[in-house]
Design goal:
With 180 residues, this protein is α/β, with parallel strands linked by helices. It has one domain: 3-Layer(aba) Sandwich (Rossmann fold), CATH 3.40.50.1000. It contains 6 helices and 6 strands. Helix 4 links the parallel strand 4 and strand 5. Bound molecules: magnesium ion. The site of magnesium ion (MG) has 9 residues, from loops.
């Protein structure tokens, strides 16, 4: 069983349902298996970080204050369950003028590595999109594509030299695979 310095997670489509541009807390719904999955994953890491693109803010579809309320809710739910979520990094850049912070850029991962002294070569990223897997591969991390959210669509679109380390139906089956 491989242990990781930190496991990074995408948000929408990975740990929660993705109806597109979640602008209100009431529309944020964890998958029913997410907390169970995260509880398994603490056997292979003691650090969780969420890395999420939220261009809805720059598109005028999400108010940053509402995004922060959702972040607080997530932080609190994980805390209640004694899960070691350190921080939620989010990028509000519009894709038409994105900085390197917006995935597939590496910026938010590099920020996290600096802030928490994380060895990225010993980390895992779990996400449902090509843009989650690409920065993980670029940074020498392991990567897991889950087939929830965009995952099914994106699964067939990886180029040979940029494939995820693991593919799993969802975050719970993935956690069982890793923590077995
Ligand atoms: Mg996603």
């Amino acid at each position: 069983m491989r242990k990781y310095d930190c496991i990074f997670f995408d948000r929408d489509g990975t740990i929660n349902h993705d109806p597109g541009y979640i602008s209100k807390l009431k529309d944020f719904i964890f998958f029913e298996f997410t907390i169970s999955a995260l509880k398994l994953l603490v056997s292979i890491t003691n650090k969780f970080i969420i890395i999420t693109n939220q261009s809805g803010v720059s598109r005028g579809l999400i108010k940053e204050n509402d995004l922060l309320r959702i972040n607080d809710f997530i932080m609190n739910e994980l805390k209640i369950n004694k899960l070691p979520l350190l921080k939620i990094y989010y990028c509000t850049d519009h894709p038409d003028h994105a900085t390197d912070r917006r995935k597939p850029g590496s910026g938010m991962f590099l920020d996290a590595a600096r802030d928490y002294n994380i060895d990225l070569s010993n980390c895992l990223m779990i996400g449902d999109s090509i843009s989650d897997i690409q920065p993980a591969n670029n940074l020498g991390m392991d990567s897991m594509l889950v087939l929830t959210g965009n995952g099914k669509n994106h699964h067939s679109r990886f180029s040979k030299d940029n494939e995820p380390t693991y593919v799993s139906q969802n975050i719970l089956t993935g956690a069982k695979l890793l923590a077995q």
